[in-house]
């Protein structure tokens, strides 16, 4: 058995000491992680906000990464981002953990020990599930369970390796644990919303069975365990499969529209006093996001006047469906189909937005626009591009939605255009930061939306 380190008591080591051990390693490793938000900015300044020894050889850390100041309006440097890390610390990690290896600490209390991403280590993943099965405390961490759910122990863990905003471990094809990577203070909607929908009896969303949070440095949600749908395929895979076979996707899109309308109705019931901004306020916020995106992505600048017209039309429009809690980052990768049933996951919202903003009431058109953009993304994966495939999906999705919701998104031209534009602007920024090769996909939509004449 390789030697592992026990920091006992963890507080004795202190966060400054740990930084001496880990600072250099993490400065290199963090920016290479998909979930690291500041890819366009080097992580210059790291601090350890909290450290908890979850079990011997496994440290739970919250670290703050701030970046070199970049020119921002008023010259204010951007604040740092907080990340959740689970680090394995051993003298010699098993060769199977090579891909999780972060480095060997040279200084401080961990000097000489190898440090690795513990989520890849089946032993740590197993112990984490055991910890989740028992409500209680570990330092600032709080573990909670749904008393009605009985999660069995000993389920074999498997870390998902797909590119994600967070990290997920599947246990025995029965449960999936999502560990949020970028942590913001407050309740994460990906716990809050599925819990509230489960209380409404909405079966389209897997209900949380266990979760954990921190109390320090500020209260925040850290992870959620939900039932895993083993036979489900996500909408993106299904859509690409249909395109590859030359098939349509209208039956699936129509049923998806109906399912989304059901989720929206349940959300409105679960968060009844939601309120929401006037269209003018929403349009102003969209303009602010557009300007920020155009500062970051020069290719967007020529289109700004045309795009602003969409937001102007929204401001001049004084009706539309009532604002309510929404999904906030809806796309084909966030919906799973098992048999002929659609399920909706990942209620976190757009990860780069402040949590408070993601939890406010917004137009349900925002989600509809997200899905319509996703049909366009899928259609653009094929050469030649299949615009008619996306149009048919769009029509079917809206018709399915209208039949269940009692209002028709196709009649809300100003709202749809503004929300599609806002979403495409978000996607431009997202792709520029995370997947520059994909940038032409939202840019093609930007070109179309900027020229659109109602
Ligand atoms: N309850 C579930 N059942 C089956 N697969 C799931 C479930 N929840 C998530 N997944 C799979 O895990 C992937 C990542 O989940 P998601 O919540 O979107 O994480 P992230 O926020 O990191 O993108 C999904 O694309 C889906 O394939
Ligand atoms: O990781 P999340 O699922 O929270 O969402 C982020 O990543 C998505 C990509 O994985 C990104 O979605 C964009 O690309 C999809 C195809 O890969 C496409 O279906 C979506 O329509 C498009 O927005 C999403 O925007 C981002 O928040």
Automatic annotation (TrEMBL):
A single GO molecular-function term is: kinase activity
Family per similarity comment: Belongs to the aminoglycoside phosphotransferase family.
Q: What is this protein called?
A: Maltokinase
Entry's InterPro entries? Kinase-like_dom_sf, Mak_N_cap
Q: Which reaction does it catalyse?
A: D-maltose + ATP = alpha-maltose 1-phosphate + ADP + H(+)
- Which residue ranges run through the membrane? none
Q: Which Gene3D superfamilies match?
A: 3.90.1200.10
Q: Give the EC number(s) under which this enzyme is classified.
A: 2.7.1.175
The main enzyme category here is transferase
Which keywords fit this entry according to its UniProt record?
Answer: ATP-binding, Carbohydrate metabolism, Glycogen biosynthesis, Glycogen metabolism, Kinase, Nucleotide-binding, Transferase
Q: In which pathway does it act?
A: Glycan biosynthesis; glycogen biosynthesis
Domain named Maltokinase N-terminal cap is located at 29-121
Q: Name one GO biological process term.
A: glycogen biosynthetic process
Assembly, in brief, is: Monomer.
């Amino acid at each position: 058995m390789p030697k592992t380190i026990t920091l006992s008591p963890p507080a004795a080591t202190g966060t400054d000491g740990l930084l001496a051990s880990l600072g250099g390693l993490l400065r290199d490793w963090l920016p290479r992680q998909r979930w690291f938000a500041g890819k366009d900015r080097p992580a210059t300044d790291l601090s350890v906000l909290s450290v908890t020894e979850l079990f011997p050889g496994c440290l739970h850390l919250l670290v703050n990464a701030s970046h070199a100041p970049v020119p921002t309006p008023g010259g204010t440097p951007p604040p740092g981002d907080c990340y959740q890390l689970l680090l394995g610390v051993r003298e010699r990690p098993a060769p199977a953990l090579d891909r999780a290896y972060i480095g060997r600490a040279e200084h401080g209390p961990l000097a000489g020990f190898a440090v690795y991403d513990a989520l890849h280590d089946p032993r740590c993943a197993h112990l984490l599930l055991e910890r989740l099965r028992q409500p209680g405390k570990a330092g600032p961490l709080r573990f909670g369970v749904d008393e009605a759910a009985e999660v069995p122990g000993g389920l074999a863990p498997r870390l998902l390796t797909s590119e994600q905003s967070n990290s997920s471990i599947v246990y025995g094809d029965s449960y999936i644990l999502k560990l949020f990577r970028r942590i913001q203070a407050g309740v994460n909607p990906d716990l809050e919303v599925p819990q509230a929908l489960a209380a409404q009896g909405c079966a389209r969303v897997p209900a949380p069975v266990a979760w954990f949070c921190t109390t320090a440095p500020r209260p925040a949600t850290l992870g959620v365990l939900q039932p895993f749908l083993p036979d489900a395929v996500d909408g993106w895979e299904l859509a690409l499969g249909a395109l590859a076979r030359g098939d349509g996707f209208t039956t699936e899109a129509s049923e998806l529209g109906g399912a989304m309308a059901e989720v929206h109705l349940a959300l409105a019931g679960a968060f009844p006093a939601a309120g929401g901004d006037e269209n003018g306020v929403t349009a102003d916020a969209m303009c602010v996001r557009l300007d920020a995106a155009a500062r970051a992505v020069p290719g967007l600048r020529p289109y700004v006047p045309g795009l602003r017209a969409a937001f102007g039309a929204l401001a001049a429009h004084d009706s539309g469906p009532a604002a309510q809690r929404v999904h906030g980052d809806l796309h084909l990768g966030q919906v799973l189909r098992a048999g002929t049933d659609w399920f909706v996951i990942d209620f976190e919202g757009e990860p780069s937005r402040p949590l408070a903003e993601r939890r406010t009431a917004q137009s349900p058109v925002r989600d509809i626009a997200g899905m319509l953009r996703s049909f366009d993304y899928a259609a653009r994966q094929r050469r030649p591009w299949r615009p008619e495939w996306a149009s048919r999906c769009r029509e079917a999705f809206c018709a399915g939605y209208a039949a269940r919701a009692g209002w028709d998104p196709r009649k809300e031209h100003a709202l749809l255009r503004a929300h599609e534009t806002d979403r495409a602007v978000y996607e431009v920024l997202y792709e520029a930061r995370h997947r520059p090769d994909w940038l032409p996909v939202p840019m093609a939509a930007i070109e179309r939306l900027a020229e659109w004449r109602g």
